[in-house]
Amino acid sequence: MYTDLQGQTVVITGAATGLGQAMALRFGQEQAHVVINYYGDDQDVEPLIKEIEACGGQAIGVQGDVSKEADVKKLVQAAHEHFGSLDVMINNAGIENEVPSEDLSLADWKRVIDVNLTGAFLGCREAVDYMLEHEIKGRIINISSVHEIIPWPHFLHYAASKGGVKMMTETLALEFAPKRIRVNSIAPGAINTPINAVKFADSKLRAGVEALVPLGYIGKPEEIAAAAVWLASSESSYVTGITLFADGGMTKYPSFQGGRG
């Protein structure tokens, strides 16, 4: 447990499922106050709220589209009104879809960039503004991807958005370090989330992905949540401007493993 997170307020975008849900629960286990952002009318976050409360944390759900400025402002406002602070902002919401680059429509490009990059920018900006106004030595964590550095054909818009998140994180970290606002990213590799469920249910497809991971297995959302609470805690107090790759070694050229090449 990270006792310094107890009673701190954490906003997590896209927290109804997958990585966001795992992070929300882990912060709940740390007895933090969690603002759970969700997008769809069909997403029920009440069971997650109850689970967090059972752990000794507190939580509320706030619907919103992170690509819309007013909705992101609403998240910060909700954190302030319900819990009186905003200490940690986690920009996790993200989408992807596979399209050959020559067929990539402007609409598809814009939707992914709007959610993955503009949404993260809005979350960062609103969090920084609040932290400066209230003199909070806050922490911002952006959820990136191994594809901020690994090219990904047929996912041009996704890779571009994550490359943008990398440079945004580093720039903000440098700009606001004098105010003791720390800004970092986590770059997950292959993680067993709902978005990957169909692929990983196929044994051949799963084996193909596992071959790209030097540790040899698909990661769990809880392993990303563990990285997030560390970056939010005082245990990482001297860490800012990094991308923490939680990828089982995927970015370390696994084709050369065993002396090949």
Automatic annotation (TrEMBL):
<dbReference type="Pfam" id="PF13561">
    <property type="entry name" value="adh_short_C2"/>
</dbReference>
<dbReference type="GO" id="GO:0047936">
    <property type="term" value="F:glucose 1-dehydrogenase [NAD(P)+] activity"/>
</dbReference>
<dbReference type="InterPro" id="IPR020904">
    <property type="entry name" value="Sc_DH/Rdtase_CS"/>
</dbReference>
<dbReference type="InterPro" id="IPR002347">
    <property type="entry name" value="SDR_fam"/>
</dbReference>
<protein>
    <submittedName>
        <fullName>Glucose-1-dehydrogenase</fullName>
        <ecNumber>1.1.1.47</ecNumber>
    </submittedName>
</protein>
<keyword id="KW-0560">Oxidoreductase</keyword>
<dbReference type="InterPro" id="IPR036291">
    <property type="entry name" value="NAD(P)-bd_dom_sf"/>
</dbReference>
<comment type="similarity">
    <text>Belongs to the short-chain dehydrogenases/reductases (SDR) family.</text>
</comment>
